[in-house]
């Protein structure tokens, strides 16, 4: 049993803490949050200890690894601290909103073999993974086009948006990672259009966008399209389509159950899709912990690495440059 | 080009006349209806001649074959006349509501090689046929269970019901034929339950039923279930399920188009199924003509024979006996 | 937190023990199995105590309720012991294979208000429940037909079959309960056909059947069809269809994920359905514990009562009588 | 009955001739093809007269309107001739591969009220039209994103490609029209990526592309994505997705029938989609004739006008400019 500490006890930290506590090869050793009461509550519920600081957690011999689910500005620092303490880290995305800080962190941990995993949970979704595996198995021949649909069920609260770093760094970053995972090759060109279509007033005040379309191309010519919206009233919409010379695979949405209605007005209608990521990606979040436990046990670098976190942010930066300059951007212009 | 005459210019006769007129290897030579104006209208629309009697049609050297779509009580007689005239006949189901009359007709045409086809159109539905072909190709291994769902969109008018001969002879007869086609073997036992659930008052007045469930078994042990209803508000419901040792195939309903809706209340909802048999079985009715033209051209007995019409009626009689005696009936008790 | 003991640590007992341990309002206090090592293993894994006998468990003041997942012949006795000890019981189906023993148990516990729940987990499936709720909400108008498809993925081992009490008591009993739940009214007539189609040799040796079709009718005329097979190579097949005057609802199967393939041979193909009941009914088993915890907390009789267990067995007996006498059986002939 | 002549008796001309001949309010008066034998064959099959020249057709008092299905270079000239002769014209797309010629034609027919319809058949697809109607009915609220998937089943022959004018003018032009139809507003910005992924050698020889992705934006900010491929082994892939504030609608592909397979390897698999446009858009081609007959009868301009043909070509030109200059192009740069 590997002993894992969770840093950050907000919504996603609580979910991770519960998943760690339930994992057959892991135990939840400690939790920490800047809000001591929040940490206490999680500790009590999951049977773990609440600690007074991240430093204390990382210094403890009773912790084998950390899961970083604290506020985004703390991610890079906690990664550095974990690596220095020799403790494998699983860090929620993004590493940092500022690419320069990511590069500094990268330099700081360069040469270390301590496993660092980034929380791109969607790669672990059984359907998405089966789609990628179908490509690897040659089922669809040469991959030509990747289409990623990614829409949140509703606008997050204003406070969230103020700190989130912008749609492309906060939300699309998952899709940039998925695109790289599905393509199996780096995009070299990025073009983006975006707008404030859902709530133009709020977006105007925040200098934010709520709806976007992106096109990317890899060096070998594969094409990728991402579309995003902050509001999908029919439920969290997460679809992937991979098209190749021998066929296509699609990974679609999960419904809460398999009941369908037939009436004089409509047939085959079902309940709206699962509301949001915690419901939709339940299995993926658990499999992510699984991969992290593997990395802790083997000492090997995880499949979803620090470099993956960095590359996804570089694509977000390229997309922002495309938006602001209204032109096709070479990824090499960013890094 | 084979020259076909259509006897009967009601709703289904009109449809057949148009299909014959459009068929690449057939022409619509003549039409006849007891209502001369109805025949004239079809003749004019389709570019055919309206004739004064069935006898005149069958005596004409300009007619190679007849399609019998007149009122049910005339079917057996017209079949006999056609066979005697040496003209292949495609006759709408049922041959007759009275099994004794069917047996007499059978005796009368025995020994003749003139092709006689019965209008069990559903066998020609591309999906249903593909399902049967999958069984023949061994795709599902040994067939164990056949489930047929067959529901009309709405109650027919009272006048129709008064002449129709009862649900099991009028509507289920198609399903009895499909069951035999799908099973590839004769049912030997029949059990039925039925009721007047949709319009008990009208059904009571007509001594009729509107909802039924049937179970049959073949000599080798295959099981078959049919369920019927005279009202399916979501559209004409025509489904077949074939279950075997190596898998299952299902043939389902057609939608008018492939548009689906996603809202906060319901996802993936589509328009109700195609309303009724003329829309749902468009391709099947055309393929039925195709098979008839083949039979005319080759002189061979068609796949859907007089005997198929007789056997389906025998199953209906067995089911009625099961209903009235509230017991399992051996088909051998009927014929 | 209610303290629950699990009696029986076989496959389903282990699943229940884990579910109880994970339940937010319950704790797993103790476990017992006739095989002490099995109990020890579960106790260790779930953090509970292994006890030496069912008597010891029921006598303990540290146990509020028991979940009976032991061998079928012990069920009735354990229910009686639990009721006498004043401890609510959730008992796996069937209560007993012998209806006389069920009646004796019923007499013995008559008058007691101790909650006794029977483990008809399928009622708790979110899709099945949504279907029933749609009926209750009037969405499909008057219910006319219920169709239940229930097929196991593969034949159980011979040893299981030897003790299982026969297909209709072991497997169909779930469907009899679901039928009663969906109909909202007691079936009064039962007709069954069955056969040994999958493995005639083994079935012959065991005097057992592996494939069945049943038709039932309620006093008000509603019709219900159940079809069963012990082998569905495409996965555990669990479907319900409810047809009424205003529409239809269907509750279907769960797939392991939502990936679909498109090739030159086939489109929209997905992975076979979830293999068996533990995977398919994960949420249902958890919701069943939820209902049991409610009953323990409130002291009220649970939705799925002892009487439900008894009525399902009566229907199984009626179906066996129908099979052996090859006729329609009135449920009143049984009890 | 309006009397229509068909100019051009190739594959699509033959289809149109048959559709006209079958239309209840139209008759096929004459046909013409540069290949007299081809015209004779169609004339004989459909019961029409084969004429010696387009001039002769247009001069005939026995023709009310013309359907132009001849080689692309003749389209503009035939439109001009028809308008001058006062005969409504339905012209296959594109009007011309050279925008300058389109502009000249436009100037030439300016001021005439003779109906001119362009053959963008897809607008008439029942599913696509239902999707647009759902937007117009307010069902999905404000439209934000349009996604068009349009993939041909296989590469056309080299000869076809040599004359087709390039993927964006030949194939995507349909999607540009659909995009305008669905958006209900003109795109003002166009960005395209494309490549030769399917057959790089052939594409290299022809200076052609076989795979493309396009993003467009309208003045009000709506976003539109089109993806194209010249090869989809699973069948002609024609999908539309419209996403708005209150929901989404999708119009999908038609299958040849509704049979699905379930095995130990795959469930719910169906036959590949209908092969190509003549099969997929059967109803759309017929409804297009319907609209044309309406225009002939009323003398009003049809819904799909010359201007629609021109605007689609302008978008194709903008997309080519985007490809060659690797940048976002303003539609106003073209026209």
Describe what you observe in this structure.
4 copies of one chain form a homotetramer. Chain A has helices at 11-22, 36-46, 54-59, 75-84, 99-109, 126-136, 158-164, 167-170, 172-183, 200-206, 277-280, 282-298, 306-325, and strands spanning 2-7, 26-32, 49-50, 65-68, 89-91, 116-118, 143-151, 187-195, 211-218, 223-229, 237-244, 248-251, 259-262, 267-270, 329-330. Chain A has 335 residues and is of the alpha/beta class. In chain A, the strands form 3 sheets. The first copy, chain A, has a 7-stranded mixed sheet with strand order 12-11-7-10-9-8-15. A 6-stranded parallel sheet of chain A has the order 3-2-1-4-5-6, sandwiched between helices. In chain A, strands 13-14 form a two-stranded antiparallel ribbon. Chain A has 2 domains: 2-114, NAD(P)-binding Rossmann-like Domain (Rossmann fold); 123-276 and 312-333, Dihydrodipicolinate Reductase, domain 2 (2-Layer Sandwich), CATH 3.30.360. The interface between A and C is medium-sized, with 29 and 29 residues. Strand 13 (259-262) of chain B pairs antiparallel with strand 12 of chain D, so a sheet runs across the interface.
Rg of chain A, alpha carbons: 20 Å
Shape of chain A: globular
Low-confidence stretches of chain A at least 5 residues in length (pLDDT < 50)? none
Oligomer: homotetramer
Largest interface: A-D, 38 and 39 residues
CATH class of the largest domain in chain A: Alpha Beta
Query: What topology, given as strand order, has the largest sheet of chain A?
Result: 12-11-7-10-9-8-15
The structural domain count of chain A equals: 2
The helical percent of chain A reads 25-40%
One letter per element, helices H and strands E, the order of chain A comes to: EHEHEHEHEHEHEHHHEHEEEEEEHHHE
Strand content of chain A: 15-25%
Content-based structural category of chain A: alpha/beta
> Quick check: average pLDDT of chain A?
97
Write down the CATH topology of the largest domain in chain A.
Dihydrodipicolinate Reductase, domain 2
Total number of strands of chain A:
15
- Please summarize the sheet with the most strands of chain A: 7 strands, mixed
Number of helices of chain A: 13
């Amino acid at each position: 049993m590997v002993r894992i500490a969770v840093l950050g006890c907000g919504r996603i930290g609580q979910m991770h803490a519960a998943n760690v506590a339930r994992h057959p090869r892991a135990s939840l050793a400690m939790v920490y949050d800047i809000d001591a009461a929040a940490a206490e509550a999680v500790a009590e519920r999951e049977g773990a200890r609440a600690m007074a600081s991240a430093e204390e957690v990382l210094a403890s011999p009773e912790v084998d690894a950390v899961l970083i689910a604290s506020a985004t500005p703390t991610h890079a620092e906690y990664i550095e601290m974990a690596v220095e303490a020799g403790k494998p880290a699983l860090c929620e995305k993004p590493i940092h909103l500022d690419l320069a800080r990511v590069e500094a962190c990268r330099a700081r941990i360069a040469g270390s073999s301590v496993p660092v995993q980034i929380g791109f949970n969607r790669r672990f979704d059984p359907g998405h993974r089966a789609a990628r595996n179908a490509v690897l198995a040659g089922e669809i021949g040469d991959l030509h086009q990747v289409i990623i649909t990614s829409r949140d069920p509703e606008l997050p609260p204003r406070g969230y948006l103020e700190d989130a770093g912008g749609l492309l760094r906060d939300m699309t970053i998952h899709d940039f990672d998925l695109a790289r995972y599905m393509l199996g090759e780096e995009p070299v060109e990025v073009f983006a259009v975006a707008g404030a279509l859902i709530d133009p007033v709020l977006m105007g005040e925040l200098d934010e966008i709520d709806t976007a379309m992106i096109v990317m191309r890899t060096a070998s010519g594969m094409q990728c399209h991402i579309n995003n919206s902050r509001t999908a009233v029919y439920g969290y919409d997460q679809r992937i389509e991979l098209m190749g010379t021998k066929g296509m695979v699609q990974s679609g949405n999960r419904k809460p159950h398999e009941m369908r209605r037939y009436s004089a007005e409509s047939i085959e209608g079902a309940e709206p899709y699962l509301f949001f990521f915690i419901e939709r990606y339940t299995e993926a979040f658990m499999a992510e912990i699984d991969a992290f436990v593997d990395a802790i046990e083997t000492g090997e670098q995880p499949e979803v690495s620090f470099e993956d976190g960095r590359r996804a942010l570089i694509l977000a930066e390229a997309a922002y440059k495309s938006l602001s300059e209204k032109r096709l951007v070479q990824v090499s212009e960013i890094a």
